[in-house]
Structure formats: C-alpha cells, structure tokens
Design brief:
Layout lengths: L1 E6 L2 E4 L4 E9 L6 E7 L6 E7 L5 E3 L7 E5 L5 E6 L8 E8 L6 E2 L3 E6 L1
Parallel strand pairs: 2-11
Antiparallel strand pairs: 1-3, 3-8, 4-5, 4-9, 5-6, 7-8, 9-10, 9-11
C-alpha cells in the first residue's frame, strides 16, 4: 500500500509558476514509477510527467515539455512538479500516482491548479 498527499496547487496568472509536491508513504521503494496526471473539466485524466523509481527515467507530455520539470528527493519519498510559464489550458486537478508493475496503482486526492488569463 502507498499513501499519497499532494500539495502546492492554487490560483496563478498566465505566465506564472507553481510547484506541486507529492509526499508518499508506505511501499514506495516497490514502485515502478511515480507520475503526475491532470484532469480538466469535461476531459479525461492525462499523464503530465513520470519518473521511474530506479534509473530516474523521465517522460513528459508534449504539451508541457520545456515548461514543467518532474523531480524527487534523495529518499524518493517526495515527488515534485515544477510548473513554469503556466497557461490557462494547464488548469485542472493534478493527481499524483504510484505506479506498480505487479499490483494495482495508487492515487492521491488531487490538488487544484487554476491559471487565469
């Protein structure tokens, strides 16, 4: 089991920045990867960025490349999403996800990000 708690969301003007944090506890070392997803109103949840637990392989959605950066602390218990040059289309609920290969994944409760134009 993994427990995930996101924080750092809020209201920001277009062009601004936010840093999201995902504090993980439980069987974190057993994860294959940690990911950030978002869901805009009326749209499906989509992958924003992910980082593998071993090797630190990173993947970004094309829409955020060059603007967002995913990282983690040395203990690998906190994953961050630095979001720069935010656009109104980045608005949504951002979720942290613990990804496993051989068991079900776990989601956090989400944090709201609103970018005003």
């Amino acid at each position: 089991q993994v427990q995930l708690v996101e924080s750092g969301g809020g209201l920001v003007q277009a062009g601004g920045s936010l840093r999201l944090s995902c504090a993980a506890s439980g069987s974190v070392s057993s994860t294959y990867a940690m990911g950030w997803y978002r869901q805009a109103p009326g749209k499906q949840r989509e992958l924003v960025a992910s980082i593998t637990t071993r090797g630190g392989g990173i993947n970004y959605a094309d829409s955020v490349k060059g603007r967002f950066t995913i990282s983690r602390d040395n203990a690998k218990t906190t994953v961050y999403l630095q979001m720069n040059s935010l656009k109104p289309e980045d608005t949504g609920v951002y979720y942290c996800k613990a990804i496993f290969l051989y068991m079900r994944d776990f989601w956090g409760q989400g944090t709201q990000v609103t970018v005003s134009s």
